[in-house]
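Is this the right way to post C-alpha cells for a design question? Let me know if I should format differently. Anyway, here goes:
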C-alpha cells in the first residue's frame, strides 16, 4: 500500500504541475471509461443460452468418452475465460481505487494551496491595514505636534517638541522631516528678552521741594508699587526656553557617541541642517556629525561650541554673527567651508581644525583674539580683505593648497611661527598694524608680500622661502629681522622702505636678490650672509649704518647709484665676481675694505667716490 501511496503522490504532483486534458472528470483529471451496456445485455443471455443448450444436449443424447473430454475442455476454457473476466474486473476495481486516491490527493493539495494563498492574502491585507494604521497614527501625531508648536502656551510648545522627538526616534525614515520642522521653528523671528520696566503711576506729581525731597523720596521707595515686568519680556523668556529645548533635541541626536564601531541608539545619521538666519542661543554642537550644514546669516548668542564636530558636506556660515565665544577646536570640514562676511565679536578658536577642502573667510571680521594654531587647510583657502582686530595665531599651521591674505588688516599681534605653506601664499597689500612673527615659517612655493605695510616689529628669522619671494613696494615702519632665513628662489625687495633697523644676518640668497631702490632709514645689517647670484642694490639708500661684514658675493654685486649716508663696513667680505659701484656715493668715503680688498682676477671693480 505504501508503494501505491508513493506512486499516487508522484502522479498527483505531476498532475498538479501539469494537469492533462482528456476524457474523464471535469478539469482534465484522469478517470476509468464505464463498461458499455451492450456488453452486459448481450454477454449474460449468451452465456445462459450456451449453458442451457449444452445441458439439454447432454441429457438427450448419449455421449462418448471423447465427447465428454471435449465438453470438459470447453468448460475449462469457459471457466478460464470467466476467471480472466473476473481478474480484469478486479484490476479495473483496483485502478478505480487508485484514481480515487489520486483525485482525493489532488483535491487535498489544491485545498492546501488555496488555504496558503488565502492565508498569505490575509496576511498582506493585515500588513497593509497595519501599515495604514501606523501611517495614520504617525500622521496624526505629527500634525498634532506641529499644531502644538503654534500654541501661545509655552508648555504646549514644549510638548510638541518632545512629541516630534519621539516620532523621529521611533521612525528613522521621518527623522530628516522632523529635523526640518525643528530648524524651521528656530528660523522663526525672535528677539531676546530685555528688562524694560513700565513707568510707575504712584508718587507726587508736583516737584519736590528741597526741604522735603529726601524724606519724600524715602517714602516713595518704601511705599510705592513694585515695578512690573513687561509681559512681552515674559513671553520672550518663555520662548527662549522653548528654543533651547529645540536646540537640545537637535544637538543630542546629532552625536554618534564615543564608540567608533557602533553608533549610539539616539544618533540620527545623515542629517542636513538648514538654520539660515536662525537665532541660536549657546548652541552646543560639540562632537556632532552633520551631513550638510547651512548657518547662513545665523545669529549665535552666547557661547557657540563646535568642538570636534564633523561636517561631511559643505558648511555654510557666510554672513553669520557670533556675539559670544566661538570654538571650532578639532572640527572636521570634509567639503568646503564658507565663513565669508561673518563677524566674530569675541574670542574665536579654530585650533586643530582640519579643512579638507577650501576654507573661505573673505571679508570676515574677528573682533577678539583668534587662534588657528595647528590648523590644516587642505584646499584653496582665502582670507581676502578680512579684519583681525585682536591677536591672531597660526602657529604650526599647515596650508596644503593656495592661500590668500590679500588686503587683510592684522590689527593685533600676529604669529605664524613654524607654519608651513605647501603652495602659493599671498599677503599682497596686507596691513600689519602690530608685531608680525613669521619665524621658522616654511614657504615651499611662491610667497608674496608686495605692497604690504608692517607697522610693528617684523620677524622672518629662520624662515625658508622655497621659490619666489616678493616684497616689492612693501613698507616696514619698525624693526625688521630676517636673520638665518634662506631664499632658494629669487628674492625681490624692490622699492621697499625700512623705517626701522633691519637685519639680514646669516641669510642665504641662493638665486638673484633684488634690493634696487630700497630705502634703509635706520641701521641695515647683512653680516655673514651669502648672495648666490646677482645681488642688486642699485639706487638703494642707506641713511644710517650699513654692514656687509663677512658677506660672500658669489655672483655679481651691483651697488650702482647707491647712497651710503653713514658708516659702511665690508670687513671680511669676499667678491667672486664683478662689483659695480658706478655713481655710488659714500658719505664717509669709500670703505677701505673695498679699496684694499683683493678681488678675483675676473672681478671688475668700478669705483667712483662721490663723497660730499
Amino acid at each position: 500500500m505504501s508503494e501505491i501511496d508513493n506512486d499516487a503522490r508522484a502522479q498527483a504532483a505531476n498532475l498538479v504541475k501539469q494537469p492533462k486534458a482528456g476524457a474523464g472528470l471535469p478539469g482534465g483529471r484522469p478517470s476509468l471509461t464505464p463498461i458499455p451496456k451492450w456488453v452486459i445485455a448481450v454477454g449474460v443471455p449468451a452465456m445462459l443460452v450456451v449453458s442451457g443448450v449444452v445441458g439439454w444436449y447432454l441429457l438427450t443424447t448419449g455421449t462418448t468418452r471423447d465427447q465428454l473430454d471435449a465438453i470438459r475442455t470447453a468448460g475449462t476454457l469457459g471457466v478460464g475465460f470467466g476467471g480472466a473476466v473476473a481478474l480484469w474486473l478486479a484490476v479495473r476495481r483496483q485502478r478505480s481505487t487508485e484514481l480515487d486516491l489520486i483525485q482525493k490527493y489532488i483535491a487535498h493539495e489544491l485545498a492546501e494551496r488555496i488555504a496558503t494563498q488565502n492565508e498569505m492574502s490575509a496576511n498582506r491585507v493585515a500588513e497593509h491595514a497595519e501599515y495604514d494604521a501606523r501611517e495614520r497614527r504617525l500622521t496624526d501625531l505629527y500634525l498634532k505636534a506641529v499644531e502644538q508648536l503654534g500654541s501661545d502656551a509655552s508648555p504646549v510648545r514644549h510638548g510638541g517638541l518632545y512629541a516630534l522627538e519621539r516620532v523621529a526616534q521611533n521612525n528613522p525614515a521621518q527623522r530628516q522631516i522632523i529635523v526640518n520642522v525643528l530648524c524651521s521653528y528656530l528660523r522663526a523671528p525672535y528677539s531676546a528678552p530685555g528688562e524694560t520696566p513700565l513707568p510707575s503711576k504712584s508718587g507726587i506729581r508736583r516737584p519736590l521741594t528741597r526741604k522735603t525731597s529726601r524724606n519724600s523720596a524715602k517714602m516713595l521707595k518704601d511705599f510705592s508699587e513694585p515695578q512690573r515686568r513687561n509681559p512681552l519680556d515674559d513671553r520672550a523668556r518663555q520662548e527662549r526656553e522653548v528654543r533651547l529645548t529645540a536646540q537640545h533635541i537637535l544637538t543630542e541626536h546629532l552625536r554618534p557617541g564615543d564608540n567608533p564601531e557602533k553608533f549610539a541608539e539616539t544618533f540620527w545619521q545623515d542629517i542636513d541642517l538648514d538654520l539660515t538666519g536662525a537665532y541660536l542661543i549657546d548652541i552646543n554642537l560639540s562632537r556632532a556629525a552633520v551631513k550638510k550644514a547651512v548657518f547662513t546669516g545665523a545669529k549665535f548668542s552666547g557661547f557657540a561650541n563646535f568642538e570636534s564636530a564633523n561636517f561631511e558636506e559643505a558648511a555654510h556660515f557666510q554672513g553669520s554673527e557670533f556675539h559670544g565665544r566661538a570654538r571650532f577646536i578639532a572640527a572636521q570640514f570634509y567639503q568646503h567651508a564658507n565663513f565669508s562676511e561673518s563677524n566674530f565679536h569675541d574670542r574665536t578658536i579654530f585650533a586643530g581644525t582640519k579643512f579638507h577642502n577650501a576654507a573661505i573667510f573673505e571679508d570676515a571680521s574677528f573682533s577678539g583674539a583668534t587662534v588657528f594654531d595647528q590648523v590644516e587647510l587642505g584646499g584653496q583657502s582665502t582670507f581676502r580683505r578680512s579684519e583681525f582686530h585682536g591677536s591672531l595665531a597660526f602657529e604650526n599651521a599647515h596650508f596644503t593648497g593656495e592661500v590668500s591674505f590679500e588686503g587683510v588688516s592684522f590689527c593685533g599681534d600676529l604669529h605664524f611661527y613654524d607654519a608651513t605653506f605647501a603652495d602659493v601664499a599671498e599677503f599682497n597689500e596686507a596691513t600689519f598694524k602690530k608685531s608680525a612673527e613669521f619665524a621658522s615659517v616654511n614657504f615651499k612655493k611662491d610667497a608674496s608680500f608686495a605692497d604690504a605695510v608692517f607697522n610693528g616689529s617684523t620677524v622672518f628669522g629662520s624662515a625658508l622661502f622655497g621659490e619666489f619671494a616678493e616684497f616689492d613696494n612693501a613698507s616696514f615702519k619698525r624693526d625688521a629681522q630676517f636673520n638665518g632665513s634662506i631664499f632658494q628662489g629669487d628674492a625681490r625687495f624692490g622699492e621697499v622702505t625700512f623705517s626701522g633697523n633691519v637685519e639680514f644676518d646669516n641669510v642665504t640668497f641662493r638665486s638673484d636678490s633684488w634690493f634696487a631702490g630700497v630705502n634703509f632709514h635706520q641701521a641695515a645689517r647683512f653680516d655673514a650672509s651669502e648672495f648666490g647670484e646677482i645681488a642688486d642694490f642699485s639706487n638703494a639708500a642707506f641713511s644710517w649704518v650699513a654692514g656687509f661684514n663677512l658677506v660672500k658675493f658669489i655672483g655679481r654685486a651691483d651697488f650702482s647709484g647707491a647712497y651710503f649716508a653713514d658708516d659702511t663696513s665690508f670687513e671680511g667680505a669676499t667678491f667672486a665676481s664683478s662689483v659695480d659701484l658706478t655713481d655710488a656715493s659714500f658719505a664717509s668715503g669709500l670703505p677701505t675694505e673695498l679699496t684694499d680688498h683683493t678681488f678675483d682676477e675676473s672681478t671688475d671693480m668700478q669705483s667712483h667716490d662721490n663723497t660730499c
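Format looks fine. Someone answered above. Worth noting: Confidence is low (pLDDT under 50) at residues 18-27, 195-213, 216-225, 598-612. The CA atoms of residues 12 and 106 lie 6 Å apart.
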